[in-house]
């Protein structure tokens, strides 16, 4: 399904909602940032080659 | 504004979401839907959360009509909405009004989410009023929710509803000028600067203001599509979305307007009417209201505690009570709301600085003058504040009153003589002889130039005169 939201929800505004949603939400946000970090380290060697 | 041959007028404030558009046709408010929006409307009607909201009046009355009504515009379906008696803007609402509007928006979202729906946006402009009852009007905003997605309208909700409320509750600031100046509301980065030091810790501020702002800055380069995927992969769930909405609702319920001393709150008590004056004035106003056909719209300018707005509501379909002091309007709103009053709409507005047109091309949000065409205009104990207090030339005051009245409408206006104690108090603050025209004879001459004086009464105290003028057609 194509997403047809007309409004720019704002990337930061989407993530902060996870944090606002209590402990479970904060865990989701932490996981998101953790994955970004891991992805960055994984990608770095290939980028430098 | 484009007007087609059929008299169909697209609403200038309805263009942001291309999936649907609002039109006016005579008295009707219509909404065209594209194929997808039409399918969503059918799903909405078949859902178990939407019909109860419709039945209780929490969303505006809506029915599908013949698409030919908006023919030639290429819409797949057309809806007809209940007519809102007087369209108002969030910067004309009091704190309590904005708070109740925010709570209704959240309530609707909380009902929609478990049924698999969400709202595309979260704007204060999604709401209007039937008197003191808020109504959700943006039917085009409902859309099926996708699993693992936060609310797309959260940022808009913060900027147009939550942040203005935080300004009022935590800092005692009136939010109206902020919303009036910025059609998209207040941004997290601006809020952050107002909430430094220990204010960082006030309810809602650490997360919705500071963290929100920091995350916006930190994710400025990330697309919302990527972030949506990342959140879904990290396990953002339906339950979490619901918990977030509940959390915001809990916060908004806790917010109370920080009281500020207001000179107008005691006005009715201190303005020096004798019981005889008041009785005579009430009789005169009642006679003016019943002198012609029942009024559809009454404007009460300088409504204060709403005494005359209430009186007018007994003889008219709808009364808009305008008052400049936000604290007075908030008080009036709370009282009327407790009485479940649906025919009086209290609004915050300085009469010498009425709402201008705003948004795109200055017409997205209609100016007050463009919305006001009243059958009865009440201007009681207000002319002296404009003419003496704010130096508005008397002919301008009379022109302005006539401009708010529909052709043939009745204008009930009170002239406070220069020797009245209230007028003397105002005059004492201005150099002597500054207002040579401020005389009853001159005022009457000006009134006769704009209409016919149908009735007049000098109040028993002898220092105030009431006029009923029939405006020229």
TrEMBL record, chain A:
**Record field: transmembrane:** 14-34
Query: Which UniProt keywords are present, listed alphabetically?
Result: Membrane, Transmembrane, Transmembrane helix
For whether the record's keyword set contains Transmembrane helix, the answer is yes
- This protein is called Uncharacterized protein
TrEMBL record, chain B:
The answer to whether the entry has keyword Electron transport is no
- The answer to whether keyword Transferase applies is yes
The regions listed as transmembrane in this protein's record are: none
**One GO MF term attached to the UniProt entry:** methyltransferase activity
- Entry's SUPFAM superfamilies? S-adenosyl-L-methionine-dependent methyltransferases
Q: Which UniProt keywords apply?
A: Methyltransferase, Transferase
Give the GO terms filed under biological process for this record.
methylation
Annotated protein name in UniProt: Methyltransferase
Specify the species. Answer: Micromonospora deserti
């Amino acid at each position: 399904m194509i997403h047809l939201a007309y409004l720019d929800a704002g990337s930061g505004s989407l993530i902060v909602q996870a944090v606002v949603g209590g402990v479970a939400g904060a865990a989701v946000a932490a996981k998101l940032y953790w994955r970004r970090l891991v992805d960055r380290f994984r990608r770095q060697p290939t980028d430098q080659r | 504004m484009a007007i087609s041959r059929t008299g169909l007028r697209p609403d200038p404030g309805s263009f942001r979401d291309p999936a649907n558009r609002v039109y006016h046709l005579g008295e009707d408010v219509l909404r065209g839907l594209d194929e997808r929006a039409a399918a969503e409307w059918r799903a909405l009607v078949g859902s178990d959360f939407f019909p109860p909201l419709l039945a209780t009046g929490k969303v505006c009355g809506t029915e599908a009509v013949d698409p030919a009504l908006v023919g030639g515009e290429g819409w797949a379906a057309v809806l007809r909405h209940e007519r809102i008696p007087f369209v108002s803007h969030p910067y004309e609402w009091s704190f309590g009004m904005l708070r109740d509007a925010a709570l209704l928006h959240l309530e609707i979202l909380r009902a929609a989410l478990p049924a698999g729906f969400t709202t595309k946006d979260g704007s204060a402009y999604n709401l209007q009023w039937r008197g003191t009852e808020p109504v959700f009007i943006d039917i085009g905003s409902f859309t099926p929710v996708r699993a693992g997605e936060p609310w797309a309208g959260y940022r808009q909700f913060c900027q147009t509803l939550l942040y203005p409320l935080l300004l009022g509750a935590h800092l005692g600031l009136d939010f109206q000028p902020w919303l009036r100046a910025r059609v998209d509301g207040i941004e997290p980065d601006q809020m952050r600067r107002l909430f430094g030091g220990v204010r960082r810790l006030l309810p809602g501020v650490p997360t919705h203001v500071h963290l929100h702002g920091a995350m916006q800055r930190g994710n400025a380069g990330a697309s919302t599509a990527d972030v949506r995927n990342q959140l879904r992969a990290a396990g953002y769930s339906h339950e979490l979305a619901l918990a977030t909405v509940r959390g915001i609702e809990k916060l908004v319920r806790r917010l109370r307007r920080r009281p500020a001393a207001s000179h107008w709150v005691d006005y009715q008590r201190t303005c020096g009417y004798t019981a005889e004056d008041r009785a005579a004035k009430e009789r005169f106003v009642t006679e003016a209201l019943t002198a012609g056909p029942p009024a559809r719209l009454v404007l009460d300018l300088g409504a204060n505690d709403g005494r005359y707005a209430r009186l007018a509501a007994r003889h008219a379909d709808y009364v808009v009570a305008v008052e400049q002091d936000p604290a007075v309007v908030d008080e009036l709103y709370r009282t009327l709301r407790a009485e479940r009053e649906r025919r009086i709409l209290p609004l915050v507005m300085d009469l010498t600085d009425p709402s201008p047109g705003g948004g795109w091309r200055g017409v997205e949000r209609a100016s007050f003058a463009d919305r006001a065409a009243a059958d009865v205009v009440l201007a009681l104990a207000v002319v002296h504040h404009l003419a003496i207090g704010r130096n508005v030339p008397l002919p301008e005051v009379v022109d302005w009153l006539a401009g708010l009245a529909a052709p043939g409408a009745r204008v009930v206006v009170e002239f406070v003589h220069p020797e009245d104690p209230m007028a003397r108090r105002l005059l004492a603050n201005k150099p002597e002889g500054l207002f040579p025209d401020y005389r009853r004879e001159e005022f009457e001459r000006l009134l006769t130039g704009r209409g016919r004086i149908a009735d007049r009464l000098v109040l028993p105290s002898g220092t105030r005169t009431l006029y009923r003028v029939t405006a020229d057609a």
